[in-house]
């Protein structure tokens, strides 16, 4: 194994269990190479097999997708570099301990609960992804884009079996999880690349003009989907990982970086996973849409299935099944582990093994319902919208507290367990913009940034007011 992957593995292991309440010591800091391997592997995973095809269901044009993803992923990288990594190397604390200093222990408990549940739902969608591959030898009916409930006993048995295996492995600890992911990541990346090349051949694409003639201006969205424009793609791809960058979750990772410039390594994840892999998966679905099965669905006014297993199998055979299973597995495993850690913060007397099993059980139940995977674009947008504003509290305190006379780490300073300034700022900003999104049918990702900004400003205003009293 290379030095880069070994160091990346080390970071992930200690991020899960060491220096939880102390700054990372100088001796444990890592170079940018460690983060490069980690991000390249983490963001070419099971979610990509679903997100790519879902873009195509929105009728997006080739220009809007290709150029929109270029810009959106760049904005994500800039957020990691100049916000997350910048604050991480200054304080070298986990997100949870940083929040506890600002918000108080009781308020962080609520954050952990929300974070853990959302992690479980995301892991559940990845169990769904793996199930679409495992079900191929059993001729299992695949879930359709509009399905919400399990479609048969075969589906239920396969999901339960996959969920049980993933949960037990995750419960063995992050050492096992991260080692497996590091070995599998190169296979998954190669699988995505090969799938994209084969799909282009199956579509008869020999030149860029052929590609443009096939895709070009896009199409009408499939039943139940909304039409994506250039700005839908840009904003959605920017905030696909909003909880990690502007939400500050990756403080826990970048606290090990020697320099803030390590934040640039996130580009490896954004342009291997969130660019190459999304477009490759999109091409797989383009091939499927020309199949007799898909044309039958469309002629009946129904949306065809978005099942990664059959699409990858159609392109590269048994290797495609393996890639989809591994991609879903390597995403679900660490996600369940992280959910378990979030729950353990709430229930510290329960062992890591059992809280991980609880998280895995919730994820497996979620995986029974295809809606979490089939509506992954909407779920990821909602996930970021809920958690990102919490990061604004950390960002605004870090950059503006001195200028506006706000006491840093106020909960720790005042020895309180509940900082109402944080809760009020989050609740008001969330309530206003979520209501506007529902009332005027605004794409949720479009209001994530305004919500984040308002939460940060309100936090400073309320802090100034309450700290005086």
UniProtKB/TrEMBL annotation:
<feature type="transmembrane region" description="Helical">
    <location>
        <begin position="311"/>
        <end position="332"/>
    </location>
</feature>
<feature type="transmembrane region" description="Helical">
    <location>
        <begin position="379"/>
        <end position="400"/>
    </location>
</feature>
<dbReference type="InterPro" id="IPR030191">
    <property type="entry name" value="CodB"/>
</dbReference>
<feature type="transmembrane region" description="Helical">
    <location>
        <begin position="117"/>
        <end position="140"/>
    </location>
</feature>
<keyword id="KW-0812">Transmembrane</keyword>
<feature type="transmembrane region" description="Helical">
    <location>
        <begin position="62"/>
        <end position="83"/>
    </location>
</feature>
<keyword id="KW-0472">Membrane</keyword>
<feature type="transmembrane region" description="Helical">
    <location>
        <begin position="268"/>
        <end position="291"/>
    </location>
</feature>
<feature type="transmembrane region" description="Helical">
    <location>
        <begin position="442"/>
        <end position="462"/>
    </location>
</feature>
<feature type="transmembrane region" description="Helical">
    <location>
        <begin position="353"/>
        <end position="373"/>
    </location>
</feature>
<feature type="transmembrane region" description="Helical">
    <location>
        <begin position="421"/>
        <end position="436"/>
    </location>
</feature>
<feature type="transmembrane region" description="Helical">
    <location>
        <begin position="183"/>
        <end position="208"/>
    </location>
</feature>
<protein>
    <recommendedName>
        <fullName>Purine-cytosine permease-like protein</fullName>
    </recommendedName>
</protein>
<keyword id="KW-1133">Transmembrane helix</keyword>
<feature type="transmembrane region" description="Helical">
    <location>
        <begin position="152"/>
        <end position="171"/>
    </location>
</feature>
<feature type="transmembrane region" description="Helical">
    <location>
        <begin position="228"/>
        <end position="247"/>
    </location>
</feature>
């Amino acid at each position: 194994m290379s030095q880069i992957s070994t160091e990346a593995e080390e970071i992930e292991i200690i991020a899960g269990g060491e220096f939880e309440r102390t700054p990372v010591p100088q001796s444990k800091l890592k170079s940018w190479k460690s983060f490069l391997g980690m991000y390249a592997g983490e963001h070419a995973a099971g979610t990509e097999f679903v997100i790519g095809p879902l873009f195509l269901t929105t009728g997006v044009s080739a220009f809007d997708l290709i150029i929109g993803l270029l810009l959106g992923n760049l904005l994500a990288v800039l957020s990691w570099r100049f916000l997350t990594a910048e604050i991480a190397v200054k304080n070298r604390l986990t997100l949870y301990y940083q929040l506890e200093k600002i918000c108080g222990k009781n308020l962080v408990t609520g954050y952990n609960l929300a974070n853990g549940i959302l992690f479980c739902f995301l892991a559940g969608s990845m169990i769904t992804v793996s199930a679409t591959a495992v079900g191929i030898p059993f001729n299992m009916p695949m879930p359709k884009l509009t399905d919400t409930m399990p479609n048969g006993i075969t589906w239920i048995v396969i999901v339960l079996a996959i969920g049980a295996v993933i949960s037990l492995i995750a419960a063995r600890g992050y050492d096992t999880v991260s080692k497996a992911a590091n070995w599998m990541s190169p296979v998954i990346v190669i699988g995505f690349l090969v799938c994209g090349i084969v799909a282009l051949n199956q579509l008869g694409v020999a030149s860029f003009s052929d590609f443009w003639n096939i895709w070009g201006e896009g199409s009408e969205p499939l039943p139940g989907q909304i039409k994506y424009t250039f700005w839908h793609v840009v904003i959605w791809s920017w905030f696909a990982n909003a909880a990690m960058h502007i939400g500050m979750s990756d403080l826990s990772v970048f606290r090990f970086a020697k320099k803030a410039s390590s934040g640039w390594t996130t580009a490896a994840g954004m342009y291997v996973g969130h660019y190459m892999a999304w477009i490759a998966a999109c091409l797989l679905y383009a091939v499927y849409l020309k199949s007799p099965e898909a044309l039958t669905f469309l002629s009946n006014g129904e949306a065809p299935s978005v099942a990664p297993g059959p699409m990858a199998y159609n392109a590269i055979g048994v290797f495609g099944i393996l890639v989809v299973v591994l991609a879903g597995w390597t995403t679900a495993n660490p996600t369940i582990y992280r959910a378990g850690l979030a729950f353990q913060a709430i229930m510290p007397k329960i062992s890591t093994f059992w809280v991980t099993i609880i998280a895995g059980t919730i994820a497996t139940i979620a995986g029974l319902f295809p809606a979490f995977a089939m509506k992954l674009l909407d779920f990821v947008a909602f996930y970021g919208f809920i958690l990102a504003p919490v990061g604004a509290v950390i960002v605004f305190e870090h950059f503006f507290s001195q200028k506006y006379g706000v006491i840093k780490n106020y909960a720790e300073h005042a020895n309180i367990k509940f900082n109402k300034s944080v809760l009020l700022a989050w609740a008001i900003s969330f309530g206003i913009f979520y209501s506007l999104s529902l009332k005027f049918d605004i794409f949720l990702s479009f209001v994530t940034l305004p919500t984040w900004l308002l939460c940060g400003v309100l936090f400073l205003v309320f802090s100034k007011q309450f700290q005086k009293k």
